[in-house]
Amino acid sequence: MAKNHRSDRPPMEPASRPEPGTVLARLAAGPSRAARITHTEHLPPRAGRHAVWPDRIRPEVVAAVRAAGIERPWAHQARAAEHALDGDSVVVATGTASGKSLAYLVPVLSALVDGSEAPNGRGATTLYLAPTKALAADQCRSVKELSQPLGTSVRAAVYDGDTPFEEREWIRQYGTYVLTNPDMLHRGILPSHPRWSSFLKALKYVVIDECHTYRGVFGSHVAQVLRRLRRLCARYGASPVFLLASATAAEPAVAARRLTGLPVVEVADDASPRGELVFALWEPPLTELEGEKGAPVRRTATAEAADLLTDLTVQGMRSITFVRSRRGAELISVIAQERLGDVDRSLPRRVAAYRGGYLPEERRALERALHSGELLGLAATNALELGLDISGLDAVVIAGYPGTRASLWQQAGRAGRAGQGALAVLVARDDPLDTFLVHHPEALFDQPVESTVLDPDNPYVLAPHLCAAAAELPLTEQDLELFGPACEELLPQLEAAKLLRRRTRAWHWTRRERAADLADIRGEGGSPVQVVEAGTGRLLGTVDAGAAHTTVHDGAVHLHQGRTYLVRSLDLEDSVALVEQATPSYSTMARDTTAISVLETDVEVPWGDGRLCYGSVEVTNQVVSFLRRRLITGEVLGETKLDLPARTLRTRAVWWTVTEDQLDAARINPEILGGALHAAEHASIGMLPLFATCDRWDIGGVSVPLHPDTLLPTVFVYDGHPGGAGFAERAFHTAREWLTATREAIASCECDAGCPSCIQSPKCGNGNDPLHKRGAVRLLTVLLRGAEEAGQAPEAETRRSGDTGRTPEAETR
């Protein structure tokens, strides 16, 4: 433990790295530590398979690659390059550190060298899209290093919100390899396409890196942004080839086709070598503390991860700790720095936090320090999950299951990138899914990664992009096939709303405002809230509008760069949160309430006497209070009321009902009915990320003993994004497996009456009351028995119920 560092673990910089098993043994040393490891998976090393570059690649490019120390490509790199040269859009879906970047860079650089010989010196251009600014900046460095021997034929530049205005015109006129993100493409490049005409006219390739991250509502928006890009390219006479890179994913070609709207060839046979990976599953111990309703409380994943980061740093191991939230990244960094200071005063400066919301200069400084080795340990959100080429890391600690197996392997793959052995540790949160996974390792190690879920036809997504497209160029009948079949129904609605006007054979944007501003592609719900220090007026950073109610409400604790602030006031009208530096001994967590009404039932399937349904709902949500929790232990210190406005959401949901006969069979009386439904709802939300590419914070739920729209006891699970994100639909189609795993997770938990590891939820608006663990198990048993007797998958029976116009009084769980 950290308190033994001074005497037992002197800091060291190992000349040669110890084996990952040795590092794990050191982490597990000490009283009770070994018992926290529930499973260790050893992934053996793998030899690589070489090939040769296609002979159509320019010899200068091959020479530049050799000068960088790469004599021959891996087989999958050569195959992907061949497809790119043939004009086939291709997705490379291989493991982390398998050289996906080089697979698309070699044909791209070859085309740029060819283009430099054109009369105007700009015969070909490439657009590179990354989901984060950090990844684009990192890739730009790599491209410049690799292409240095090629001279001015490759002019690479980052074009994003951090690019100085004086550089932007040069990039538009002379850049041949422009690196940006979907946000800038959507808001900056496409609306200003006349200024980009020479670039778009010469566009040969579009590279989409880390394309598996484009899922849910964000992925659906990006799909429409790419359709707008293809439309403008066609206007300028270009038809670019799309080159996509993805972490290992199920059906990558299907997902890539849905994203781009084009046929895509799949290259998924990973021929790169891999060092040994030791992967440990780690469950924090139970404490003597009691949580809500007297439930046992485990030590937090944050505290455990901070200990592990401390120990790894003391051992001289280069490591990253991934954590789900910005606040968690800051907290782990602060705790580790404090404990390292007790060991050696030079060590705290070698650990830092990295997250979104930092100012550009802060991000760049941290990235440089990590690359140089100045930093040994980093506590990071998934902003560093995505492809930053951080070589030589020894270990990755993952504080809480990141939501998908694809993301888990992506994070674990950050270690061992130079081909050496590496250690990965998944630290379970006190959460149904995390607890289930650390005791069912086969669900992680014996299952394929998930399919990417996105829905470009979501009308809440498509409508603003039709407006943006019409503002760029009037929409014609010929364009509708590109944007999908839902256009036919949406265009009359946009005309009726006076957003579009049809003149002769085209639809035109009618407003003075920027049409691109209608689409919030990351689903953040408006302009970011600026976090400002009250005493100085200094801008500390930003918070997404959608998260402001829960993270920077009055009285919230806000962490930034290791410093703690208290929110003095949140001004929603001006999108400003005023904060002042403080040192509270607690963290804060918001509580909310939710009501839900059924708007339309698309599909309904009998499960015995009960029903499984999928359709449209309206959700009304309001943040009503916040809890103060003691740091480290998570003990609840008190609750404070808040007065924030309600927000409404029309979205998609899956729901199931049970009848009186089923309740009798499950021995559920009226006294425990609410608690049984509530517990089943909580656990099912916690387990859904195992079956859909979502996070529990992407979805919500409501359980009602008598819902006015169904007239039966009902449990709803809904997408937390306007129009839906595809998660509820995935839940509907995997409902039997999903709810079976939910029942098993509750039944196998060692607690007596329910705890955060099975049925208590960290975001429950009702304070986890009422809950009935055994009732939930019996209820799900009877429900699933009805599903078995029905003997059919959720398919054929379709019923549309129309708008009910009713809103029940229900509360979120």
TrEMBL record:
Residues 1-11, 796-813 have a biased composition (Basic and acidic residues). This is DEAD/DEAH box helicase. NCBIfam families: DECH_helic. CDD domains: DEXHc_Hrq1-like, SF2_C_Hrq. Keywords: ATP-binding, Helicase, Hydrolase, Nucleotide-binding. Residues 1-20, 788-813 are annotated as: Disordered. Residues 81-267 form the Helicase ATP-binding domain. Gene3D superfamilies: P-loop containing nucleotide triphosphate hydrolases. Residues 304-460 form the Helicase C-terminal domain. GO terms for molecular function: helicase activity. PANTHER family: ATP-DEPENDENT HELICASE HRQ1 (PTHR47957:SF3). It comes from the Bacteria. It comes from Streptomyces olivaceus.
